[in-house]
Amino acid sequence: MTPAFGLFCNPESRRVEGFCAAAGQRLREHPRLVPWQILLEDRPWEPLLDPMPRFLRLESPGRNWRVEKLLLLRGARATDPESPAWRRIPGSVVSDLENEPGRIHSSRQWFLGWRDTLQRLSGWANQPRLSARWLCTPEDVLTMFDKAACQEVLEKAGLPVAPSLGIPRSFDDLWQRMRATGYRRIFLKPCHGSSASGVVALEASHDEIQAFSSVELVETPAGTKLYNRRRIQVFRGAGEVRALVEEICPERCLAQVWVPKAGLGGQPLDVRVVVIAGRARHVMVRLGRGPITNSSLLGGKADPSVLRARMGEESWLRMLSVCERAMTECFPRSLYAGIDVLIEPDFRTSRILEVNAFGDLLPWNLHEGRDTYAWEVEESLNLPSQVSAIGS
């Protein structure tokens, strides 16, 4: 009997546990699992998908140190088609790295390894009718993992986003872009980062400059190490801010205008909206302790119904519609994604900040009695017959 799902994943992760539970409850079967580690070590993995499942799902490779090292090693061998200027780590150095929780390694190099991995999977699946089995295509996932590329796709679709100042290469380059555009407050975001890792919120007046970031710079005999922490630090003065930006820019960063955020209870907020099969379903309101709002920073959460009431039904539905458009117009080959949305202080205007390929981990967040994974399983089974019938 043909299994329903095959997952490329880290089997020990909470994500896999949640999806497998949903599939088991709905279908009384366990998805076939292909560990990223086996694939990245070039060990035979195809037999794990025999017989071939009806659907193929890409899961996050995060929170597994062995997998992270393998992606960095693969990225060390990859050629960067854009520029050799971004931070790179030689493969020999990667091999000797030890796990340091929170340590920021070359996110660009990691992405190059991730890109190579997904491109190989895409080529493997590029057989008659086989590529139609992806719930989210490797190509879409790669675009979502590149904030600059994702911004461009959203802009071309005419969707509301925070204006971009491009990809600066240094503090001086960033400063020139700010002067040329007149913007004095910007966010600097590593294009391939997650969990607010490396994000810098910078603001300048005529005679003062400061920045907020969860980054900690640690000086060692071997050079400066970067760590992502769960609290926001303030960098004051040109010297501190320049040093921070000079360390972050080599990660390849997108500069976005710092658009003011609405708040509740004195805390700024943003919204994670999970769109599944073209419909905005699950909503999580994330609060911040500073200008950077991300659940990893422990700012807390708010009741979506409170925000909905504050926004009013028209503005709330318009926000959800923008998220649905992002998926149907920009990523029509992907069943789901988590979209981060900024609500302006007028509580009427909303802008998309980014699209997250693996933004569906919202424990205990239910929509019409189902969590994100239960909805994804259900909507997979409701896909058009020419897809769902493959291999059956």
Structural summary, described in words:
- This protein has helices at 14-27, 36-40, 65-77, 91-96, 107-125, 138-144, 147-156, 171-181, 237-248, 304-311, 313-330, 372-381, 385-388, and strands spanning 5-9, 32-35, 55-58, 164-166, 185-190, 200-204, 209-220, 223-236, 253-257, 263-264, 267-276, 279-287, 301-302, 336-343, 350-356.
- It is α+β, with helices and mostly antiparallel strands.
- It has three domains: 1-145 and 365-392, no CATH class; 164-257, no CATH class; 261-356, 2-Layer Sandwich (D-amino Acid Aminotransferase, Chain A, domain 1), CATH 3.30.470.
- The strands form three sheets. The protein has a six-stranded antiparallel beta sheet, sandwiched between helices. Strands 10, 11, 12, 13, 14 and 15 form a six-stranded antiparallel beta sheet that branches.
- α1 (14-27) packs across α12, α3 packs across α5 (107-125) and α10 packs across α11.
- The radius of gyration is 21 Å and the shape is globular.
Topology:
Layout: E1 5-9, H1 14-27, E2 32-35, H2 36-40, E3 55-58, H3 65-77, H4 91-96, H5 107-125, H6 138-144, H7 147-156, E4 164-166, H8 171-181, E5 185-190, E6 200-204, E7 209-220, E8 223-236, H9 237-248, E9 253-257, E10 263-264, E11 267-276, E12 279-287, E13 301-302, H10 304-311, H11 313-330, E14 336-343, E15 350-356, H12 372-381, H13 385-388
Parallel strand pairs: 1-2, 1-3
Antiparallel strand pairs: 4-9, 5-6, 5-9, 6-7, 7-8, 10-11, 11-12, 11-14, 12-13, 14-15
Helix pairs in contact: 1-12, 3-5, 10-11
Q: What tags apply to this protein structure?
A:
15 strands, globular, alpha+beta, 6-stranded antiparallel sheet, D-amino Acid Aminotransferase, Chain A, domain 1, 392 residues
